[in-house]
Amino acid sequence: MFTAVAGVLGGVAVAAWVVISWASKRRQPWLMAPLPLLTVLLLVLGLPGWALLPIAALVAGSFAELVVGAREAPTLRTKYPDAPLSTERWAAAVAAPFRVALAEPWDVVARPQLRRRYRKVFEFEWGIVDRTSLLATVDRLWSELHEGHTADMIVDLTAGTALCADPSGVRPDRTISLTPAQVQRLREVTGADEAAETVVIGAFEWWKSAHVIRLALGGASLDWLSPVDTQGLLRRVAVDLQRRYASWQQLAEAFHGGYLLWNGTGPEDAGSDRVWTALGLLTADPESPWKLLPWDMPLERTVPQEGHPVQTQTQ
Which residues form the DUF1266 domain (predicted)? Predict the structure, then answer.
């Protein structure tokens, strides 16, 4: 009887370990593979009491993976390192900070493993709950980018502030305080030397194109966008963005400044901001797509109906 109970517990523990290890996409949980084998061996030898020890260790390890694995530090990962150049790959690189922040491959368009996270983040950040609201948000962002005035961000490196002034005068000026670490990062990204007191990040608001791409990747992962919808949206945004900036360096500058203004990261949580950490990796790591992909690579010019990033008819 006790052997049967230990066998059932062992089976449940092994099944949970396999599921957690597969879902985590990390190598570490698979290192516990000897524990299931030891459990089976002890049960075969008629030692169910001793078998409870590796079972308990397997349960503890699996639980730890649920906690630690979900908090894995931002990591630059590529699923298809030798993939040929394409518009989809180039566009995915633009929004790479959001995937790198999750330690997920940046170059995968549809990522079903992230469906739950996409649903949660989309609803919380954008109020998106289905295909219709996703397309409405994409159209709104697209319109804001093309109808708004191009604004610059003025960063006072001495005072530790960043100012965004609306050229049209419709919106009030916005100023945010920067931590010393953020000031130093902006110095490095913009190439400002230690003697520089002010730096200007031009047309920074076009970093929001990364949001449109992020929505496209999420829509593809949630099956809210068809492959044709997704490819068309990524192509249009990529072609448009390539005309706005001259290099990945300019995108990196705009992304840093725009993200700080959009996220409103303050001194109390700046050190734990995963996207900010991911931005640092993509800017400095020699294996970053921002270092390896040519900014001016030829992009396919086939795009959806003029005036909209994607056809918005519901299916």
Answer: 125-295
